[in-house]
């Protein structure tokens, strides 16, 4: 479930990148998914916010806050996906063994449920954000550049 929500969020971030650049969403997907590292993809968005939305400080701050939360969620997803998991009865929780340190311990499944909820919340916030960016910036590579 975490991977499904992550994929949905990443496609929306590709569309947000397209809106920031003033290009069709398909180009946003082509550009966004070129780097293989998720954090690097978010950094691409961060790098184009200022020149794309000059004069829209509240929108810039909103996007940066969402990117910060997304980086945290993606970091937690990375930890979940690259962990050794063990359990006797999932209702009792699971054992998380972090590699390569072999640290970790018991984790309630509610922790993973919270991660999924965080992804869903971000998805719900990014959807209207794309429209806000398009309305603030306009379409086309020339706007708002002077």
Structure description:
- The protein has 146 residues and is mainly alpha-helical.
- The protein has one domain (2-82, 109-137).
- It is 66% helix and 9% strand.
- It is built from 5 helices and 3 strands; from the N terminus they run H-H-H-H-E-E-E-H.
- It has a 3-stranded antiparallel β-sheet.
- The radius of gyration is 18 Å and the shape is elongated.
- The model has no long low-confidence stretch (mean pLDDT 88).
- Keywords: Membrane, Transmembrane, Transmembrane helix.
Quick gist of this model?
The chain is mainly alpha-helical and 146 residues long.
Domain count: 1
Instruction: Classify the oligomer.
Output: single chain
pLDDT < 50 stretches: none
* Largest sheet features: 3 strands, antiparallel
What's the total count of β strands? 3
Q: Strand order within the widest sheet?
A: 1-2-3
Shape: elongated
What order do the helices and strands follow? HHHHEEEH
Helix/strand class: mainly alpha
- Give me the number of helical elements: 5
State mean pLDDT (0 to 100 scale).
Answer: 88
Approximate strand percentage: 5-15%
Measure the end-to-end span: 44 Å
Helix content: 55-70%
Radius of gyration: 18 Å
């Amino acid at each position: 479930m975490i991977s499904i929500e992550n994929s949905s969020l990443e496609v929306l971030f590709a569309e947000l990148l397209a809106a920031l650049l003033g290009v069709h969403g398909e180009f946003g997907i082509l550009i966004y998914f070129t780097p293989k590292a998720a954090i690097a993809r978010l950094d691409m968005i961060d790098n184009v916010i200022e020149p794309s939305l000059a004069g829209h400080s509240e929108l810039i701050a909103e996007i940066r806050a969402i990117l910060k939360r997304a980086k945290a969620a993606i970091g937690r997803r990375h930890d979940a996906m690259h962990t050794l998991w063990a359990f006797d009865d999932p209702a009792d929780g699971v054992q998380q063994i972090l590699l390569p340190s072999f640290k970790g311990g018991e984790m309630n499944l509610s922790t993973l449920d919270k991660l999924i909820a965080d992804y869903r919340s971000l998805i719900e916030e990014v959807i209207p954000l794309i429209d806000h960016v398009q309305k603030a910036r306009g379409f086309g590579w020339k706007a708002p550049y002077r």
